[in-house]
Amino acid sequence: MKPVTFKLLLPTLLLFCLQFASTVMAQSAGIELPAGSFHSVLPEVVGEPHRVDIFLLDETAVTNSQFRQFLMENPRWSPSEIPALYAGNRYLQHWSNDGNYGDESLADLPVTRVSWYSANAYCGWKGGRLPTLNEWEYAAQLMHFNTAQEENLFSSELIGWYSAVDAKHTKPVGSTGIENRYGVKDMFGLVMEWVEDFKPPVATDLSLDCGTVGRMQGTSSMYGYAMSVRYITRMSFKATSTTGMLGFRCAYDYPENAESTKGKSSALMINHPNNQSTY
Amino acid sequence: MKSLYQLSTLVMTLLVLLGVSRASAQSQEYTMDNMTFGMPEAEVFTEDYHGPPVVGDYFTMLPNLAPLDYEGNKHHEVRLDAMIQEIEVANGVRYRAWTFGGTVPGPTLHVREGDRITFTMKNRSDEEVVITEPGSEASPYMQQIAGNNFMDAKPGIMPMPHSMDFHAGTVAKDDKWRTIAPGETIKFDWIANYPGTYIYHCGTPSVLMHTSMGQHGVVVVSPKDGYPTDYEVDREYVVVQSEYYLKKGTGDLYQYDFEAAQSKNPSHVVFNGHQTILHDQPLEANAGERVRIHFSNNGPSGTSSFHVIGAIFDRVWLEGHPQNEMRGMQTVLLGASGSATMDLIVPEEGKYILIDHEFADAEKGATGTLKAGPRK
Amino acid sequence: MQNLKLLFLLAGMLLLPLLASSQQTMTMNNAGLETAKTYHAESLHHMNAEWANQNGETIQLADYLGQPLVLVMFYGRCTGTCPVLIQRTWKLYSGIDVDIRDRVQVLAVSFDYKNDTPQALKEYAENEQLDIPGWNFVTAQQSDIRELAMLLGVQYRERSDGHFEHSNLITVLDAQGKIVLRSEGIKGGLSDTATAIEELFKSDLQ
Lengths: 279, 376, 206
Fold this sequence. Notes:
Chain B is mainly β. Chain B contains seven helices and 28 strands. The longest helix of chain B has 25 residues.
């Protein structure tokens, strides 16, 4: 081989390896969701779709075994050490002892009875953050429905889930079979999830009163109804709340150094067969 | 001596002013037409409470009503926690209900017009609460459930936000009827300013969902001067009509049918929460007796055309107010959350059927039995 | 004359407890400084976060155990309310009694973890003429900033253009790290708050 080519080869190989590594790292930190917009049920900006920038979101909710790893490295978040500032006294109550959930068959269950503070700390530890409310709702709406009937059936089942879930027997992540079109799993049907801003400023105006549901439904779609149940439930939490039906997943900023499409919005509007217009 | 007198007067005045200013800063209560308004702000907090979910001497299980064994007004300190119970509502139909106190409808509270109630509620939807082991401080309601668990209630967990709306209370709803997260407790005062039978229900949106899922009950507020026929009443019962919107779920349990609820198409319409309870455990009386029924249509959405087959209501006080007296009614039409207190004279020995004369409702279960023995 | 003095004393003894009990937030539980790890249940000193200030020094909230702390959240590139909020904090700070002011510390925490590096914070502090002893402009990891905002009750949201929508709040922690005062918004007088801070110090002196 010619010496010049050889000299070029090594750095080229190195560069290639680095680029490959960075994309691998980006992939392992969650699923990439493109920039786009969606309609929220909250009457903040009437009729306006909310824009969401490109970001990454965990494929599944954080599991018991993942959270155990976090506790091993950060024992101050274990039930025996966590201050009342960060969680109520039922924090991880269903775990058999302080830093462990018990039987290995429970490893892949979504971790529940975690407060917002502990979820936020976990995501920070992973180099990410909690998704914002808009990011979460946007990702949740990236479902693919072929027909209006299909969407209504889904929404009807979702409302059924909100009123009949058996919080004593959660199932492993990935088991609902529900996936958005990018492969993000179980945003419905498994557990409710923490978001960064679970009680947005407009929540105080809504005051969670009887008439709220009517105002939250831009159009009277069943999907909107299910959404309003979810918003209301989420808005009732305190940052120290823990429940057997509340877990979380992490989001990550799109890495600056990667070939970013940030800002280059694909203006992906959510396609819902039921409504050309908004909800 | 005079200066001393002046100084002591000044000091006393200062003390009184200080005392008065502090007192009035804490209370905005005022009376008008012999009614009291202006309750203090509700408190929301976290407590480490694991005791009985229903506390209060005047809480009973339907159709019973606790006797008011006191003169004048009383300050009641009660607790009624929200929790999940898996219950039977008809033969072979069980579902995981959202409840107050563990049954649907929830416990009946009896108070007198003018009573003050200090109410505490913990949202225990994220913990398993056993209602069949009353313990010593529990209410008559809990004793009655333990002895007669006809809904076969079993604890469950389904964490959801909840709230309480007492129709008998006159307060600002954004303060007292506010929603609390699982694990939180709310505490507030209200005064039973008006007599009558009033629904209480969860006010967290969607109210249709929360009440259909089981969170409702009644408070019976007896008028301070009673009804004209009080001395002749031999039996007193509480009957509550309500709807269920249930469909079969995955597994053995039924679940909420959202579409049925939205289109006012109940799967079951029942008295006292269970399709057959008032037949399995009929109301009892004897011929010639005056039976008083406090009846509430808790809905959430339907109307009730309440009639007792074989009888006519001698007196009907609409919404339970002594001045709303009607005479000789065959059927009383009540909208959702409407109520009436009614007397009937049991004519003869035999069977009488309580019924919602809207037969689509009756055939879904809105019937009950009053069994009458011979004249005593 | 003796009777008068006696009566006066008696009146004073009766009045003082009444006055004291009406100042709930000011009552200090002076159990003395306990071991560093045992913080009051509601104390923000439990926060583990490491804040880097404009001089590159590392600060933790627990460092303030034993003295009250003024907290405000802002960000450097803000052209909206933050300048007003920072000036308001300065107004509060300068309204405190000179003898006490030297011991009052201010922690100004930036939302903008990407742009407000220690160096950028130094420039900001210098531009605001607030690069003075007692004033720390700090940054930390994103989740730490989120956590602090949640503890204080500050709402904020990052926009696509990198700016932040946020509520405005000045918070005062007592010597045990508990929140005792909150001044929301950018309007209204601050002399009451300044007095209250002085009270915190006075009771600590006892």
